[in-house]
Write a structure and sequence with these properties.
Length: 136
Amino acid sequence: MVSEEVSEISLKKEPKEEGLTEEESTKKDSAEEVPTEEDKQLRDYEMVLVISPEVAEEEFEATIDNISRLITGGGGVISDIEKWGKRKLAYPIRYFVEGSYVLAKFKMKPAFDKELEANLRLSEEVIRHLLIRAGS
């Protein structure tokens, strides 16, 4: 009975394009896709940053400005930046027990989020960040 069910299931391969070997068609499938109209539109994002407590006030403002320029340089539009001030962390991060919190609300292209997060990871001033897509 089970063997009958298994035999009824057939695994079909997608037809290969003419003139391409199986290896070439696999490479073509794994290549980067062309961005669609959906990727080109701006989406709502919210990002919470925890900035090192060792950063002076002038450097704090400069850090926020640099991140803002990074977002706008990538085609984003910042709608709001809220500075929550210094708060105690729930657990130590990089041996810090407190950090300055900042909430940023903005719109940007979905394709730019990986580049933004990579730059935030490299930043010495930002000890933690959380980037989420807001709305539906």
